[in-house]
Amino acid sequence: MKPTGLPHRPALHAEKSLIQAILDGRHPTGSTLPAERELAAALGVTRPTLREALQRLHRDGWIGIRHGKGTVVNDYWAHGGLNVLSALVRHGKRLPDDFIRNLLEVRTALAPAYARAAVDRSPAQVLACLEEAPQLALTAAGFARFDWSLHRSLAAASGNPIHSLILNGFAGFYEEVAGLYFAHAEGRRLSQSFYAALARAARLGAARQAERVTRDAMEESAGLWRRVERRLARQP
What we know:
Layout: H1 9-24, H2 36-43, H3 47-60, E1 63-66, E2 70-73, H4 76-79, H5 82-90, H6 99-121, H7 123-130, H8 140-157, H9 161-168, H10 173-182, H11 185-204, H12 207-234
Antiparallel strand pairs: 1-2
């Protein structure tokens, strides 16, 4: 018996190949994709399979399908959604220089909200997530894994699934970047202080306090990352 997902693999191949071509600049923003017959042949798929892939790309904002006028490549920063974000993260080499700074700005806006909601809804669950924090091994990888797990848990405990959807778009990439951040002792120290302050707020059931300490920590971490970037830029 064939695996259930097997029939969809050609369409996924076509979709991923076209995304890579868009990110590589082979199909730049504003350009028109080749005709279906030519494009299907180039990708090694049938025209119905190509159409399936194009519909997915259209749904996610990569392209605009104009019947009778060809298929145009969109500005994915303006038209894309969460699936575009996830794809951009997977193709990390194509990310703009300010992507991580912008990501940290978004986290500074989101994290206080889901931390407040998590403490308000389930302070015991938040405390359970933080139990491991005082015994964390002083390694960048250990801190990165814990920090990612904590933020995902807080987002889930907030009761708003959109928070989780946004965070999940950065799976893998988050830990990679966090590893660079936590390679610096100051990053580990700031986060340990944050974990302790968040635990105190959870014990008190103080949702607003959790929001405040999370915002302060996110702002501090964004400032530290800017300093890390400057150091990395000076390296040969």
